Each structure stands twice: as C-alpha cells, then as structure tokens.
Amino acid sequence: MLGVWTVSLVSFGVSAQSSPPVCSTTTTIITNSGLITLGADRECLQINSGGTVTGSFVAVRNLSVQDVQITNQGTINGSTGIFANVGASISSITNSGSISGNLYGIDNDGTITTVTNNASGLISGEIAGILNRSNAQMREIENRGGLISAIDNLGAMDSILNRNSGGIASLINSGELVASFSTHAIYNEGSIRNITNNSSGVIFSLASYGISNDRSGAIESITNTGSISGVTGGIENFGSIGTLNNLQGQGNDIGALIYDGQLPGNYNIIINGPTQYGQLI
Is 145 helix (H, G, I), strand (E, B) or coil? Predict the structure, then answer.
C-alpha cells in the first residue's frame, strides 16, 4: 500500500499550456568576448550558428530580470555558460549548439521554466551540465536527441524528458523532482548512464509512475536511497535497465518500491540494518 506524504508543488511563472512571453527586446550575437548580462525583463538573446560567447567566469548571466529567453545555435562557454541568480527568471533556454563550462553548463539559483536541448545540442560541465540549486526552481528539461553530461537537482523540478536518441551521462537528484505538469518525473526514450536518487531525494508523479523507461530506452543503473513513487507506482520499464540498487522499503514512509514491466538485469537490495532495507513489489 502506498504511503502518504506531502510534497511542495512549485508554481512556475509560465504554465504548461501558455506561450513564452513576447520579447521586449531582441539581442542577436555573432561573436562576443566577455560577459553578457541580461538587463531587461522579457529580453530575448539569440546566438546565431557559428557565433560565440565566451567569458572568463560566466558567459551569460541573469542577475534580477524576469522572463528572459535564450536561444543558442552557436557556442556559449565560460567557467559557467549560463547563470540565473536568486530572484531572476528565465522562461526558456533552447539549445542547438554548445553550452559548456569548466564548472557548469547551466547554473540555476533562480527560476528556469524550460530547457530544451535539440538533436545537435550539447550541454556540458566538468561538475554538471545542468545544476539546479537547493532553493531554485526548474519546471522541465527536455533532451530532444542531444547530449547532456550530467543533471544535478538540489531544488525543485517538475520533469526530465530524454527523447529518442538523446543521451544523459548522469542524473542526480537530492531535491524534489515532482511531476505536476508532466505525466512522469523522469521519462526516457534514449540512453541514461546513471540515475542516482539520494537519501533526501524525492521522485514522484501526480499522474503515473515516477520513472518511465520506454521500449527504446536504456538505463545502465538506478541507485535509490530516497523515494521513487507515483499514483500508479515507482518505476515502469518497457526497455532495458541494467542494475537497480534500492534502499526504499522497510524504514521508508512510502514503503516498498513499486516496479512494473521488464525486470532489471540485476537487482541489489541495500541493507542499512535490521530496520532499514530495500523492498520491491
């Protein structure tokens, strides 16, 4: 039987059905050496194909303005590619080029509604491609066939959708990944190397399963020491999952991990003691 618990549903500035705000100004960049600071609400920044934006620290930053849109067909590179500060909001980041950093590709400490990484897109960082900080909010990441080095969620996020031919090296959740706009918190049609849900992590769907792996989907490993659940169940698998390591069960308020579909290649129970160990139903 499913346990009962409360999650904090995030109210985003742009609803799932609404269009992005109309641009107040549009800035088109071919080449820029140095920091770009977004300075107007609803500003739209576009980096054309072949264009470059480089910064010694941050390449593109939003310190306080609201509802900006960033479209990249070129290259954004710095220690961090794109940074959103506390109180700042970005309605959309659409990438068909490269967003990269020595630290992070995208570092969010504010609010980002959607990140869309198209088939030719790369989002990468030596620590993480996308970082959502502990008090930050992000609604959706959709990877449409591109590559994302890693996603690290410490805050509140609605969903991660990895489309056919898309690749994500690692997905780490230590916050709340709660699908209220989307059907699943994590939906995979492509390939994901590792999903790690840490002890403080919650992966939950208000509509279906917390994690859904489609027929074309391949996940090398899932390690769960937190909670994965949904109104239907925790994980459904129609594709392939190599290894599932699980602590959720005895000692967890949600109870056992509910798993449906094709079994993983390997299932390992994590045991922390006689009152805390993994269970699968």
Answer: coil
Distance (Å, whole) CA 57 – CA 36: 11
Dist. CA 211–CA 73, nearest whole Å: 31
- Identify whether the C-beta of residue 241 lies closer than 8 Å to the C-beta of residue 219: yes
Among the listed residues 70, 66, 113, 104, the one whose alpha carbon sits nearest the alpha carbon of residue 85: 66
Measuring CA to CA, which residue among 161, 190, 156 is closest to residue 173?
A: 156
Burial (CB count within 10 angstroms: exposed 0-12, middle 13-18, buried 19+), residue 13: middle
**pLDDT for residue 15:** 40
Alpha-carbon distance of 124 to 129, in angstroms, equals 4
Q: How far apart are CA 110 and CA 228, in angstroms?
A: 25
CB 187 within 8 Å of CB 163: no
Residue 67, token pair as written in the block: 């509802």
Q: Angle at CA 161, nearest 5°, toward 244 and 264?
A: 20
Name the pairing type of β-strands 266-269 and 240-246.
Answer: parallel
Q: Which residues fall within 8 angstroms of residue 11, CB to CB, at 6 or more apart?
A: none
Q: Which two tokens stand for residue 171?
A: 């997905």
Instruction: Evaluate whether 225 touches 199 at the Cβ level (below 8 Å).
Output: yes
**Residue 2 backbone phi and psi in degrees, to 5:** -70, 135
Which residues on adjacent β-strands are paired with residue 68?
90
SS3 sequence of 169-206: EEEEECCEEEECCCCCCEEECCEEEEEEECCCCEEEEC
Task: Summarize pLDDT for 125-176 with one digit per residue, the tens.
Answer: 999 999 999 989 999 999 999 999 999 999 999 999 999 889 999 999 999 9
Q: Is 0.90 topped by the overall pTM?
A: no
* Structural tokens at position 203: 């992966």
Between CA 32 and CA 50 the distance in angstroms is: 12
